[in-house]
Design goal:
Length: 411
């Protein structure tokens, strides 16, 4: 009789683990609480699924993981982005590489990745049981012996892989169930916190710009207590009713891990391609060109229309003043504002709105060579349930695939 393995969670990590374990001839069953597997995978990358990042060195991967990156060295060594790409190409999914080495399905449809991964697990011999929620682990003499489902039914097993995800996007099934299961086996849980999450700001002018997306801006996050810049980035930013979001903000949130109201400020450079001197020259040309227009209209070539009233109010310049009446000092102050548009970070959005969860099962209690628990025999972990999280760019899914591969190959 082959070993019986239960995989709790039918997401990216769980399906990969199931496929690898079943491919070794083991009797594998995936227990998924939702009616369909991989619901969270369907919404990643805005529905396009940033499946991995096409970097080529292990160190490149670990550098993108702000906490516990070294723990993943073994998993990445066994399953690199090139392996992820080769797998999905072999499953019939054509891929493409975009800016920042981000890898997407050529179709821009996450469902293609989901269908391929589910099909891979099934063709490998794994069985999928949906609408099945695990209530607790069965353990005996320091080893796992199976699970007890919410309906009271017991399923015996020789090994269990916990791949339940974190607690972001709970509607997709990531409700933190795995933490309780791990704790019941003696594991320490590093308190979950949101990562890759928008910022709430104290200033109301951000809300006035709700819906405005700026594609080429530079940002700096500064720690006011330490008088130190802690993060810089360039890319797209989105203003919202609560503050700021967009790729550069999500990346910044992974670096700012001890947010307290008023501790951090966000500086936005609206014209990063221009030095202050060149920006001033540009403004002189525009104000000369539109010298007989009010400032509301004179800045139309320089800023998005909806941003002009906000910028003028912050600079203390009347929107009705004519461009030819603007003093040199006012112009210089306006230029400085365009290079240093500053708001105060009040906090992050709730963990339910985060793309990934930081925190989870303590990595010191997991064998990095196998993903097996050091405390409970036959118990393995994979994916976001572990205390590892990365920046945006496909790295978090690569963590899921690499740890799932290692768990499924070791159980």
């Amino acid at each position: 009789m082959p070993k019986r393995i239960l995989v709790i969670g039918g997401g990216a990590a769980g399906l990969m683990a199931a496929a690898k374990a079943a491919g070794r001839g083991l009797d594998v069953t995936v227990l998924e609480r939702n009616p369909r597997p991989a619901r969270k995978l369907m919404i990643t990358g805005k529905g396009r699924c940033n499946v991995t990042n096409a970097c080529t060195l292990v160190n490149e991967l670990t550098e993108q993981i702000p906490g516990n990156g070294r723990f993943l060295y073994g998993a990445f060594s066994r399953f690199m982005p090139c392996d992820t790409m080769e797998l999905f190409e072999s499953l019939g999914v054509k891929l493409k590489i975009e800016r920042g080495n981000r890898v997407f399905p050529a179709s821009d449809k996450a469902v293609d990745i989901v269908d391929a991964l589910v099909g891979y697990a099934k063709k490998s011999g794994a069985k999928l049981r949906t609408d099945t929620r695990v209530a607790s682990l069965l353990t005996e003499n320091g080893a796992v012996k199976g699970v007890v489902c919410e309906d009271g039914k017991t399923i015996a097993a020789d090994g269990v892989i916990v791949a339940t995800g974190g607690c972001s996007y709970p509607l997709t099934g990531s409700t933190g169930d795995g933490y309780a299961l791990a704790e019941s086996a003696g594991h320490t849980i590093v308190p979950p916190r949101p990562s890759l999450v928008p910022f709430e700001t104290e200033e109301s002018w951000c809300a006035e710009l709700q819906g405005l997306a700026l594609k080429n801006v530079a940002i700096t996050v500064a720690d006011r207590d330490r008088y130190k810049d802690v993060y810089e980035d360039f890319g797209e930013l989105l203003f919202t009713h609560f503050g700021v979001s967009g790729p550069v903000i999500l990346s910044a949130s992974a670096h700012v891990r001890d947010i307290a109201p008023g501790k951090y400020e966000l500086r936005i450079d609206l014209k990063p391609a221009l030095s202050e001197e060149k920006l001033d020259d540009r403004m002189v040309r525009d104000l000369t060109k539109y010298s007989n227009r009010t400032m509301t209209n004179a800045l139309a070539d320089l800023l998005p229309r909806s941003m002009i009233p906000v910028v003028l109010e912050l600079s203390g310049i009347s929107p009705q003043i004519y461009a030819n009446k603007l003093t040199r000092e006012q112009r210089r102050e306006l230029g400085y504002l365009l290079k240093n548009l500053t708001c105060t970070i009040k906090g992050t959005r709730p963990i339910e709105e985060a793309i990934v969860t930081a925190g989870g099962v303590c990595v010191k209690e997991i064998d990095p060579k196998t993903m097996q628990s050091k405390l409970c025999g036959g118990l393995y972990f994979a994916g976001e349930v572990i205390d590892v999280d990365a920046y945006t760019g496909g790295y978090n899914l690569q963590i899921a695939f690499a740890t799932g591969n290692l768990a499924g190959s070791s159980c």
